[in-house]
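Protein 1 of 2
SEQ + STRUCT:
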Amino acid sequence: MFDYIATPAELQTLLIDLSDAQWVVLDTEFIREKTYYPQLCLIQLATEKRLACIDPLAIADLTPLFTWLHQPTLLKIFHAASQDLEIFYHLSKQVPAPVFDTQIAAAVLGLGDQLGYGRLVETLLGVNLDKSQSRTDWSARPLRHEQLEYAIDDVRYLKQIYPLLQQQLKTLQRDQWVFKSFAKLTDPNTYEVDIRGTWKRVKNSQLLKPQQLSVLRELAAWRESEALHKNLPKRWLISDEILVDMARMRIQKIEDFRNIRGLKEETIQQQGSQWLKLIQMGMKLPAEEWPQPTRRRTLDAELALLTDLLMLVVGQQALQYNISPQMLATRPQIEKMLIEQRTSLSEDWRGSILNDVFADLLAGKKTIAVKQQKVFLQD
């Protein structure tokens, strides 16, 4: 059984009942098709003694819930936490902490990288979840009982899985590995929008020259700011394809925008003057301030051999810890590390396994040896 919380009074009663909880399992349902920010439609939670669905569309002020969630003594448990935490940060301007992410824990335990919730439940509990409501419009009201049952399952079983994962991490002495990954999830900077850096995610930006990228940076920053202000999807304002065309063409007057396929005359009349100013701003910047295209550098023969060597180490460490090599590191990741002249791969749990080994090997403090058809590292 679970409670459906749809009034401030019901929420207050629930929070009083949960005041002594040491941990809470959380999940959200949201839609994002028509907005820049996710529209929160349902919050599911589970503690040792309660299951509840909270209706944020019926309760205008969620401040009491956020006050309770932000208690530093209350552990917040999620599966694939980043989207849920982004929503809470947007609404409360604070990231709930501390957190435990069962997807990360499953990866550390070798159960699978980016493992979905349904697969995790099946693997650990032998339960096949109902998928019939996966296309639900969570903003529609009233929600049917089967929809709510589907939603509450996302925390009903996770409260059973959490102690299993926690115990396995302690048994294998891997509980320390996850801390850096969990800490990154609670860093507010993770959810802040880098408006000036959004040009890097524009499709086909790598095809542009540096001065054209300077123009693209101004246009992409304008689009991001407008989307934020109006709470609309970026693609509704202007597509990536059109942004790249604007940056590539040497536009000098508003009439030139009419040569770009897909731009409506009404939009040109409304925004043309602003776009022209942005283009001129990007073109006038000195060359040393132009962004540089992100093209993949090729490895020379020596670095290619070194990559092969480190990939062998990845395989050896994966075998030692019973984790898939692909979950530890990929060849492109190692190539990037060597090109950037780093000796550490990452700051998450993978780095806990590989960073020191890589650093010692690259410094000549360790070597790879073979004995009785087994590969191992020796001092």
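Protein 2 of 2
SEQ + STRUCT:
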Amino acid sequence: MHSTVKADRRLLVSVFGPQEAREAVLGGARIIDSEDPRSALGTIKPRRIMDIADAVLAARRDLPVQLSTNIGEDQLLHRRAANGLAVAKSRYETVGKAAQAALGVAVSMGTLVHPSPIVKVGLDGMDFDRLGEVLGEITATLRRTDGLRRTRVMSVLFAQDLDLWDTRKTLPQVRRALVGLREYDPAAPDTPDAFDLAGLADALLGDDGLPLFPDAPGHRPTEAVLKAAGALPTAARGTHVTVNEPFAHTEHGLTRQRRTDREAIRAMVEATAAAGADAIMIDTSILLKVARIGLISTAGSEEVVDLDAHDTDAHGLPRTGILTLDEIRFFVDLCHARGLEANLAGSVQSHQAQQIWRLVPELDQLSARGGVVAPSRDPLRGTGADTRHERVVRGALVAGLVPPEQGGYLVVPEHMARSPKFRPDLDALLARHPDLVVRFAGPDGLPDGTAD
């Protein structure tokens, strides 16, 4: 670890309500982000942002805490044609609506918690020139606004590895999760990788997170029933669908490769700086998240202990990542050379965070949601389901991702500790970082002890 550490390194935690905000602050989060957890950058109602701001304002804070809110993960506007296809609207309207949304969330956050709240701008699926146009208009608009001119703008772009995605997108557990999130489109039965939605109707969820068809798969809903429930558009012909695909970098001028490489990182950073923004976050889309493809890779580096290999789901699918340690360092260095703060997101886990904070001490921010949540507990209704709808932020898990100088420790989930080869890798990690405190999680997912 470097002898000097930046004192203002911050963990961003995405929350969906006041109680989650309080938990995040208690755990040591320095940026409280308002977000709907059911998508990668889910749009949230202004009044809920205000409720979250009030909760943070009333909480005890040892260090300054900022607020942030996103305006969604895709700023492109479309109208729906009679045949069900999307037709792009004008560039002027796209840019104007994005700036209006940014003003709205900035007003909702206010300046009582911190004089410089953060507006996150999702820019996935945009050509290079439109990306800069949208981001530049938002930045210029906020800086002309009375009382909000200190609002900071953070671009959010998604990393990808399309070859890895192709190997995972058809896995049964991945396909079921994507159906539950409505990440699919109608398709002809002979389309490659098409499947019958009626056969996975039990995975379809309503806005409340409950199954739309609890009697499935024993009872397969018809095309008409699926349309009536909103699971298929009225223009669909049949019940076959394909899962949505990431917006390929190659189609939007970011790189010639099928994964996020240095060329793509450079394009993202340069566009953000040229637009006058303050920071950039590299995240991963909801598609890759449910396929257990995160941003940070712990494989392939002699400096990083590969604990991803022990982080498997119930089907044995290991967690994996996209960016290497060298690529992360390149991203951080280029951001600072262009006057930007660097933020890493994308299914960040405790074992990744505690290594990256130590190996890249210049990093400004990490962001998390999935790595700091556990099933909810209610004294009347018991423990909630282990789903994106039911899992809530817990302070003890937040502390597993904060920087070490702010009390961060390594949280080891129960399933990782059971891996036969985990203990030797943990010993290797502790040999490299003797200051690292380890806490093992119990069956409820919360840490309950310290390593010997």
